[in-house]
Design brief:
With 282 residues, the protein is an alpha/beta fold. α4 links the parallel β1 and β2. Strands 3-2-1-4-5-7-6 form a 7-stranded mixed sheet, sandwiched between helices. The protein is built from 9 helices and 7 strands.
């Protein structure tokens, strides 16, 4: 058996034994084949926008950490334009990237056997800003660019896409989150999508990479936490991403207890309006 047919046999067995419906694998294939097809991005931006409006905000920022080739920023831009047409909200896009790819690291927690210096280099970060006036890219080491962002911005962050790959880079940003909270730059609950909670060789877990950075963050801070929703069969909002979504809870945020639920004041009374409730509003 030659190498090609051997790989084909492995692929067949993996598909045959895939534990979830094959439509999930097919949708994932589409997201890999078409770099700007990211249904989880669209749903996250939409839900974030709805929550912001319920809290009384008509402008938010969506942050991507690790811009690389720019496909994430372009996807966010595509979806934000659609959402701004149907919801009364303005969405700003903020990107952070070194501009020179991944930095050199010998830390075991950074998985140097999996990532290497220079991976995901983008030499045209400023070109992305020309795509739309709502895009701002901070280029350089995140330890300094996040400080610059804090000085320059007042719009609250509603959603963060983490794609920094390394434990050390992820930790650098997470350690700045209390400052973002102190400066009132966060919604009370911020969706956080972590792109690298899983790698296919099964050597990424809670002793390294993003998972370790998250664990240390929760151990270090008491008034702000990253919580992961329990997996449930009725969870349908975030295709391809529900296992990678955390919610950043800013417990001391002045709006943390403000009601944004689906029920009106008379929803449980005899005066309830028996209107049909749409699933997309849940």
């Amino acid at each position: 058996m030659n190498f090609f047919f051997y790989k084909l046999k492995l692929l067949f067995l993996r598909v045959l034994c895939y534990e979830k419906p094959l439509r999930v694998a097919f949708t994932k294939f589409l997201s890999l084949k078409f770099s700007n097809f990211r249904p989880h991005y669209e749903s996250l931006i939409y839900e974030t926008s709805k929550n912001a409006i319920k809290l009384g905000f008509n402008e938010i920022s969506v942050v991507e950490l690790g811009v690389a080739g720019g496909n994430g920023i372009k996807s966010i831009l595509k979806y934000k334009r659609k959402i701004e047409k149907i919801l009364d909200i303005k969405i700003n896009i903020v990107g952070f990237d070194t501009g020179t790819g991944l930095p050199n690291s010998d830390l075991k927690e950074d998985l140097p056997y999996f990532w290497k210096q220079g991976d995901y280099t983008n030499i045209n970060l400023k070109g992305l800003e020309k795509e739309d006036s709502s895009i701002k890219i901070y280029e350089g080491n995140i330890s300094s660019t996040i400080d610059k962002y804090i000085l320059e911005n007042k719009i609250k962050i509603g959603l963060i896409f983490f794609d920094l790959d390394l434990y050390s880079s992820t930790k650098l940003f997470l350690d700045k989150i209390p400052v973002l909270s102190e400066k009132k730059l966060l919604l009370p609950r911020v969706f956080c999508y972590f792109d690298d909670l899983f790698v296919a060789d099964y050597t990424l877990n809670d002793i390294n990479g993003e998972p370790l950075a998250i664990k240390e963050f929760n151990n270090q801070f008491k008034k702000i936490k990253l919580g992961k929703t329990f997996d449930h069969i009725t969870d349908f909002k975030f295709p391809l991403a529900k296992g990678q979504i955390y919610t950043l809870h800013d417990f001391e945020n002045e709006n943390y207890n403000k009601y944004i639920g689906i029920y009106s004041t008379d929803s449980l009374s005899n005066k309830k309006n028996e209107q049909f409730r749409s699933l997309i509003d849940d």
